[in-house]
Amino acid sequence: MGCCMKGLNIELYKKMCLVRKAEEMIQYYYSEDGMKTPMHMSMGEEAIAVGVCHALKAKDQIFGTYRSHAIYLAKTQNINDFFAEMYGKDTALLKGKGGSMHMCNPDGGFMGSSGIVASAIPVAVGASFANKMSKNGKYVAVFFGDGATNEGVFWESLNAACLMKLPVLFICEDNGFAVHTPKSEREGYESLTDIVSKFNCHVISEETTDVEVIYNLTQDGIKLMSDTSMPLFLHFRYYRYLEHVGICEDYEAGYRSREEYLKWLERDPVKLQREKLLASGINDMEIKNIESVITEKVMKSITKAKEAPFCRNDELFEGVLV
Fold it and tell me: Could you tell me how far CA 251 lies from the centroid of its own chain?
């Protein structure tokens, strides 16, 4: 393996480890009740967030759904701001007023996420239109779940983006459920990608948990966009490990089985990338050192967030649109 490829694969692993370790610590500390915000966890989808974000340039912009942990950290890697926001502290960019569902870091290219299903999609299309008009060369990527494709605004936004030939990436993180409702009970068609392919956009779909594959496919898609001035629709399957909202498992709810989870766990994205690094000749001690550094970084951020002050009472009325 060449030095550049080795470096790339390690960077992809580092980013996924950062997301996984951050969420493991949320699980560990959430019962202390210091983090008041509801948690929509990203465990199981790390490869999508990291693979896509790593293929984008620093200047490119991202919009997200309420399940925003993985995409926020993959884009910004700002773990200090992440935990300051989780703990609702003044040291966060949003001073604790956004919480888990409304992360935002425009200087880092993360333009915002929303708790309303599909609501970020038309905003991302608007940002893409602004970028095209200003000729600044920025791409916009918007992440959403498969449930969002049942909203009319998704199709309206896709249609507008195709009509105006906008530099926007639509990334569908498909876990097969809208909260607890499977596709069979909410979709009157067989294939989402078949329908989207009828629009004037490029469509790439893959059922993989391999971050390197997702990274390369996204790069290929971006080149297609550049060559043809057409939007890109990326469709990736994954399995949500935890409950829709919260830090626990939910297999007792009856809408899915633990056996299905265990099948997906065999190709866990973080585990898969670690195994690939070992197979490429990187020794176990080197990988453990990487993991140790990330764990220490996360723990320092949590300590800093816990010790930070809350914002002033009058700060609650600042930055509010009326």
Answer: 23
Q: 0.85 cut: is pTM over it?
A: yes
Look up tokens 């009970």; give the residue. Answer: 185
How confident is the model over 273-311, as pLDDT tens digits?
Answer: 999 999 999 999 999 999 999 999 999 999 999 999 999
**Cα angle value 79/171/161 (rounded, 5°):** 120
Number of CB atoms found within 10 A of residue 55's CB: 21
Cβ 296 vs Cβ 79: under 8 Å: no
CA-based nearest residue to 273, from 11, 49, 69: 11
CA distance 42 to 165: 31
Cα separation values, 137 from 120, 161, 270, Å: 21, 16, 32
Q: Is the C-alpha dihedral spanning 212, 300, 39, 154 positive or negative? A: negative
Amino acid (1-letter code) at residue 167: P
Nearest to 87 by CA among 302, 232, 275: 302
What tens digit of pLDDT does each residue of 60-86 get? 999 999 999 999 999 999 999 999 999
- pLDDT band at 6; cut points 50, 70, 90: confident
